[in-house]
Specification:
The protein has 19 helices and 18 strands. The protein is an alpha/beta fold. It folds into 4 domains: 120 residues, Response regulator (Rossmann fold), CATH 3.40.50; 176 residues, Rossmann fold; 79 residues, Helicase, Ruva Protein, domain 3; 47 residues, Orthogonal Bundle (Arc Repressor Mutant, subunit A). A 5-stranded parallel β-sheet has the order 2-1-3-6-7, with helices on both faces. It has a 5-stranded parallel β-sheet with strand order 9-12-15-8-16. A two-stranded antiparallel sheet has the order 4-5. Strand 13 and strand 14 form a beta hairpin. Helix 4 packs antiparallel against helix 19, helix 17 packs across helix 18 and helix 18 crosses helix 19.
């Protein structure tokens, strides 16, 4: 297998710039044209939609526009073509706005003054990723299986294809790191609600004392610390899809309330009397054996049968070893290193490993190898598995007398380190942590990580190549 090289894609694309300030719009357009891109310009939501009669390859839009804002424009653009990456720039950034924009489908969120070189680099990567994920097999396979050759992945593709234009509830089963969230997004994109929002939430990351507030929202004064009214995730997903990742970890006290919303399509915010409508499609995922959880009475049987209308299972990477070469090439492309080759020994080392962390671990291993390699070729010595790293960490662990830290302290420090390692870039830090960007934005807010270490503060000079 050694000697395999993937040619670098030359990015020359049509990009729509939506900005009512002519000077800012012309400056961004000029920088894009200098990179060889064709640029369309619009000064309002209305003009942007007119340009979408022939969808561009990417959109850069200001948050506030004369006839609306980017948050209201996003669903309209996604209804016309959900594959086009949209980048939002604004001088009025808040964490809440960033979280909402990303949940509605924005590729990334930039604060002014924007470093144009950084913005354009992100747009180029977004276009390259879009091309990589919309070619091959006519868009049938979800992203991790586009390079698939194994029979088990072909069968999964066939199962998902039957869900095209469907609106049914889906339960996705699979080990951690197999790509369940990517599959959920694909099911939404080909489903009957593809023009609506896709809101994903990691149930394992929800604090038990705030899970009800996050899902259903609350009124001001509903409880101590509720200083303002808050929209819940069921609200945000109205007319679209709510993806509950790791639903097996959801608080037992909240499960009957979720069941009621699914059955009656109504709910109440905390502290509110009147009921609200929640017309959503639910996609759930878990690595747990939910039937065993039902037997242990840690998961409600009625909720299980309600969410498992259709059940699909994502196979572990060890069950699809034939797919590893294609996945490696695909992931190298996503890392911006498609020209990097692997020695025969490196390929053999990857192929003989059991991959307990699945695709997530494969991505981490390749990312580490790209950092460690001495030249353009990855050798077997550059391939270091996560299990080896965990063993080294345990061997160097602090003495038992050390005072244990809380889980929140450990997670906050881990997030801060990931952000520092990626120079404050949310997208790259989220990829490193293997969580959705919207989840990372929310954790940054919840843990009060200082804005100085928060990703997407583009007032810093661009990184050197």
């Amino acid at each position: 297998m050694s000697g395999v090289v993937v040619s670098r894609v030359r990015l020359q694309s049509r990009i729509l710039v939506v900005e009512d300030d002519a000077a800012t719009r012309h400056g961004i357009a000029a920088a894009l044209r200098a990179r060889g891109h064709a640029v369309l310009e619009a000064g309002s939501c209305h003009e942007a939609l007119e340009h979408f009669s022939s969808p561009p390859d990417a959109v850069i839009t200001d948050l506030r526009l004369p006839d609306g804002d980017a948050v209201s424009l996003l669903p309209q653009l996604r209804a016309l073509d959900a594959t086009v990456p949209v980048y939002i720039i604004t001088g009025f950034a808040t964490i809440d706005v960033a979280v909402r924009a990303v949940k509605l489908g924005a590729e990334d969120f930039f604060t002014k003054p924007v470093v144009l070189a950084t913005l354009i680099d992100c747009v180029d990567k977004g276009i390259a990723h879009r091309r990589a994920t919309t070619t091959g097999r006519h868009g049938r396979a979800f992203a991790p299986s586009r390079a698939a050759r194994s029979d088990v992945m072909q069968r999964l593709d066939d199962e998902v294809e039957r869900l095209r234009n469907s609106d049914c509830t889906v339960l996705i089963l699979g080990e951690t790191g197999t790509g369940k969230s990517v599959l959920a997004r694909h099911i939404h994109d080909v489903g009957a609600r593809r023009s609506g929002p896709f809101v994903d939430v990691n149930c394992a990351g929800l604090r038990s004392d705030f899970v009800e507030s996050e899902l259903f929202g609350h009124l001001r004064g509903a409880f101590t610390g509720a200083h303002a009214q808050k929209q819940g995730l069921f609200d945000a997903a109205h007319d679209g899809t709510l993806f509950l990742d790791e639903i097996g970890d959801i608080d037992m006290q909240v499960q009957p309330k979720i069941l009621k919303v699914l059955e009656e399509k109504r709910f109440r915010r905390m502290g509110e009397v009147r009921e609200r409508n929640a017309d959503i499609r639910l996609i759930a995922a878990t690595h747990h054996d939910l039937l065993a959880s039902v037997e242990r009475r840690s998961f409600r049987a009625d909720l299980f049968y309600r969410i498992s209308t259709v059940t699909v299972r994502v196979p572990a990477l060890r069950e699809r070893a034939d797919d590893i070469p294609g996945l490696v090439l695909e992931l190298l492309g996503q890392e911006g290193a498609p020209e990097v080759d692997l020695t025969r020994e490196a390929w053999e080392k990857l192929g003989s490993y059991s991959w307990p962390g699945n695709i997530r671990e494969l991505r981490n291993v390749l990312h580490r190898a790209l950092i460690l390699r001495a030249g353009d070729v990855v050798t077997a010595d550059d391939i270091r598995f996560d299990s080896e790293s965990r063993g080294a960490t345990l061997a160097e662990a602090a003495p038992e007398s050390a005072s244990p830290r809380t889980l929140e302290e450990v997670e906050r420090e881990h997030i801060a380190r990931a952000l520092a390692a990626e120079n404050g870039r949310v997208r790259d830090a989220a990829r490193r942590l293997a969580i959705p960007r919207s989840t990372l934005y929310q954790k940054i807010k919840n843990y009060g990580i200082p804005l100085g270490s928060r990703p997407r503060s583009l007032t810093d000079p661009p990184e050197e190549e």
